[in-house]
Amino acid sequence: MQTVVGVLRGGPSREHDISLKSGAAILAHLPADRYITRDIYIHRNGEWYDRGKPVAPERILRQLDVVLIGLHGEYGEDGEVQKVLSRFGVPYAGADSFGSYLAMHKMMAKLRAKEAGLLTPESHYIERAEDSEAGAREAIRRFHQPVVVKPVGWGSSIGVSIVGGYAPVVAAVKQLFADGATGVLVEDLVRGKEATVSVVENLRGQALYSLPPTEIIPPEDDFFSYGAKYSGATREICPGNFSRVASEELQRLAKVMHRALGLRHYSRSDFIVAPKGIYYLETNTLPGLTTESLLPKSLAAVGVTFRDFLSHLVNLALSR
Question: What is the domain range of residue 303?
Fold first, then answer.
């Protein structure tokens, strides 16, 4: 008897379009001889659709054996959809609600990283829009210019900017709050090689298997911004050009953060390899699975097909 796998994609987030691509990739590569797939589209307004028709979540969820989440950003990675799935007892791959929330809240994730002994860029957290000017002034006083300004809870580098000087920093902070950010981080800019490392549970006989570090080389006039990620202008090398010592340490730190955040099944953590050490940036609990995404490329580098990886995720979800 075939397993019925629901694939969630879309969603009410700024990463809606990327989620559609991730979901499409999952649907295209799930083995048809093993699984019956259900393409579940979630509208930007939060309404669920099955086979093109609006449907109550509980109605479609009762028809599924397991769920793979192709959502990104708000609702998908902040723990909200996981609450819905847990409420109806549907197994799903990926972090639970609390782990998702913790990883997506960049300030909380940074605190967990520090507790675990990792380096992370110094930052100033601005929690309220009315504190924008005072927060920017404090950040300008503490950090060399330019600085990194980022929303505390979005993904795919949406809203991230590198700016210098009081007026530009204030403007960047205020714009994020105006766009709906629930908090803003102003971070010290650490220069070095960008790296990302994915980990997968119970792969190749290891409780937590680290894939090779990927080196990210954005265009010279840009950083790894949202545009640089999906325009094809960024070079991604896997395995990256890191020393053996740096590669092993990156793999170790990705495992440390997976455990420190209490995650499940798989995750991808981002780092900067700088002269003073390796700095932790953030962890993605539902990494992108499009043709441009980093996780499928790192899987290919060690000979794991995307098809086999998806089957592995289904098995992980059903085993819990």
Answer: 102-119+190-319
